[in-house]
Every structure is written in C-alpha cells, then in structure tokens.
Amino acid sequence: MKEYFVLKFKTTKEEWEKLQPLIVSDNYLGAEETEENGTLTVKAYFKNREKIPPEILQLSESQESIPEKNWNEEWKKYFKPEPVSEKFIVVPSWMKEEYPIPKGKFPIYIYPGQTFGTGTHETTKLTIRFLEKTIKPGCSFLDVGAGSGILSIAAKKLGAREVLACDIQKECREEIPFNCKLNEVSGVEVFIGDLKKLNGAFDVVAANIEKHLLEPLVPEIYKKTKKLAVFSGILKKQRDDFAKTLKETDFTILEEAGEGEWMAFLCRK
C-alpha cells in the first residue's frame, strides 16, 4: 500500500515562509496550518521520505507515515459542495450524481488528487471571481500553476476558446484531463514544464501560486499576456511588496480583492 510521509513543525508564520522555498518540490504535496497563541503548527505532506532534504528533517518536531487510503478519506470528511463565486459552485466528484446544482450556477466537479487542493481555498475563489470579469467568449487563456485544472475548467465554461494549463508537477498530466472529463469539458491542453519554454501569448493569464514562487514568474507572465493577468496567492501583509513587483514589471493594477488573509490582483499590461 502506498504511503505519504508527514513532518510536523512548530514555528511562526514568518519562519514558515522562509522555510517554504526549501520544502517546495515535486515531492511536496501541501500542508495543513493551525495557529494558536502565536505558534504555528504545520503538517507538511510528502510523497517520499528519501527525497526530503536532511536539514528539513532535522527541523521537524515529529515524523510519521500515513496510508494513502486514509489521506483520501480525510478529503471526503470535509470537502463538501461550496459556492466559490457568483456563477460557480465546486462539487466533490463523488457527489456528481446526487447533488442538485442550484439554479443559475455552473458546477465544477473536482477530485482532490495529488495536486493543489479542492478548489475552495480563498485564493482560488478570488481568482475565479476575476476570471468571471475577464474571460470573454472566444478568448485565449493561460493557467500558470494549474494544479487540479479548476481555473482552466472555469475558463472553458465561461467561453474561452483556447485554454492551456501549465504546471511543473508531472501528476497534472493525468489529473487535469481527468477533472476535465468529469466536467464534460474538452479542449484544455496541458503543458508540463518551465513557463519560459512555453510559446505564444494569451488574452488572459492567471497564476494562483504562493508569493515566493509567483514573484520570479511575474516578468515571464508579462511576456505571455496580450492584455490581462490575474495574480493570487498573496497574503495581505505581502500586498505592498508584491504590488511593487507588479509596477516594476510595468503591470497596471486595475483592481484588488481580498478574502481572509489572502489577496488577488487584476492587472493590465
């Protein structure tokens, strides 16, 4: 039976942000964070113990392995249908036949595999709300850091003609088409690799990625968009720093939005 490896850290938000660049890799699956009395407890999930840097292992408070079947059951305990914007509601794939879609909503069916999330995180909601304002029938769309493909699926349902989902995680090659099939959506191309190696430009580009990973991509995203870009995954306390990066890259901020601790930007080239 396949197992996942879990490291537990007791830290602060600031120290966790510094640690993340050392942790994030194709071996890293994500993390659960809880904060109490100024102390941040983080459970970081990995595919393989042997690929975790030794210095990360040494910094962890505890280590354990968990069976794959337990991981999937955990998703099902708390992943329920949730409206994420005016037009869209995210529904777990296993509820597709039994859950009645509210009138006026587009469903996005997602199976939470090895890539990022269920599609109900604040950063995803903020991005989808901006896509509703920017995706026009017939336009082209690039999804940077596509993960499960939820933004690409939303773009298709909003009428985008050309949709390209880009990610460095090899698992996306299977998970994005799987989620597209669940949603009866066709025409989403998948590109696995470095954004710099991707040719062409798109009417709208969206990137929902944590700031330390997103910031180095901003100049390349500027080249890849013909007109508009949506950036999400920015903590509110990082707002000024990221806005400075956007302006230095010649992006004009058209609109900002926030939910919880997170922010998103709609920009024009």
From TrEMBL:
User: Quick one: which residues bind S-adenosyl-L-methionine?
Assistant: 124, 145, 167, 208
Q: Name one GO cellular component term.
A: ribosome
SUPFAM superfamilies for the chain: S-adenosyl-L-methionine-dependent methyltransferases
The top EC class, named as a word, is transferase
Predominant subcellular localization, coarse grouping: cytoplasm
List the CDD domains: AdoMet_MTases
Gene Ontology biological process: methylation
E.C. code: 2.1.1.-
Q: What does this protein do?
A: Methylates ribosomal protein L11.
* Family label: Belongs to the methyltransferase superfamily. PrmA family.
What is this protein identified as?
Ribosomal protein L11 methyltransferase
